[in-house]
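Note to self: keep these together.
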Amino acid sequence: MQGLKIKELEVEEIGCFKHLLIEPAPGVNLICGGNGTGKSTLLKCIASGFINSAQYLTLKKRQGSRQGLVRLKCDAGRDTAAPGGAQPEAVEVKYQVNNFSPVEREQISTGLARWARYVMQLGVNRLPSYIQIDSLKKDSEVSDYDAAQEMLAGLDLQGGKEWFIRRFLFADKEGSLSSTQLHNFALAREVFGLLDEHISFERVAGDSYDIILKTQDGSVYLEYLSDGYKAAVFMLLGLIMTIDYRFKEQGGIKAEDFAGIILIDELELHLHPKWQGKILGVLRRLLPQAQIFATTHSAGVLQGAGPGEVISLTRSEDGLIEVRRLPQDSHGFWGWSQEEILTEIMGLDSLNSPVVDVLLQRFEQELCAGDRAGALKVRDELQELLNPGNPLSQVLEIEAVGAGHSEICSLREQKSG
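Structure:
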């Protein structure tokens, strides 16, 4: 079984990066960090290494630099995890980025375009509109050139609906589909219920070629469900469809055996926090052999990370983007609360609203100044704002009557010193 994995990614003078070196995990890699820390840029750096010479780079060099440089070190070839797998071929390429102006266009050729079918990139435009299907087309033929052309634009998820319907209509026709195609279709049927166990595939409407789902509200068109549900389902169907198409000439592969690279910008796009906590597990189930790079702002997604699967980007004191040093994660972050992830992994200074933080600062100032009346007044303002069950309410009561007064002031002095 063929495979492709990124072993090292080095970026110099690209976008907001002065220099960054990453040795990604062979499975899941979740890239988090504040806005403007280059999360999406890292995905583009990987994808751009697999484009062909007919495409234009969307990457730009760092402002004020002479040129940018990206280095990719890959293991390409036979998957060593497969029975009888041989040592994969080590491939290392570098490409330069010379343009900064938005109107300048630049082309490169790394020689990796021949591996493009093993790389799938999904941007943030993953919400297809309703597609009326009047007739069914034959399966798409995908060459290495075609796969490379999809690299920067992202997968065309609109075709997932027609692919599914075509597989449904021929699944019971003996000899019409290969065993691998039948397997991938069966996997695709499961997709509809993976985020919500109350939803399942019901049928394809014979008069309109529409997918009808069984829900708690009755039989509903796929396109009538929530944007979050549709974005996730079309993403998953699109990945299975692409694997089904791209490897047809090689005899086909099951989606679970795909050992290539998947790039996803904002994995949790449109999802409720409950489903944000599920989506990574769904990807692991469907694509257990893939190397996944996904950007995220979601603590719920990060809770599903295993050991070494989080790349947290931050700005250092001198303003450069670097990888945040994380606490030891020998068991991943499955046992971490979202509050702990938001502060220790994603770098939030406070989980309170700005209004509450300002009042808390005033409260401490009044206490340290010895103005108990002023402190009580601020305390009352805070009590009106806080959730009645918030333990901070009790802490404020204790501090307001004097307990902990000296400790608060000494802590403030230490911080200011």
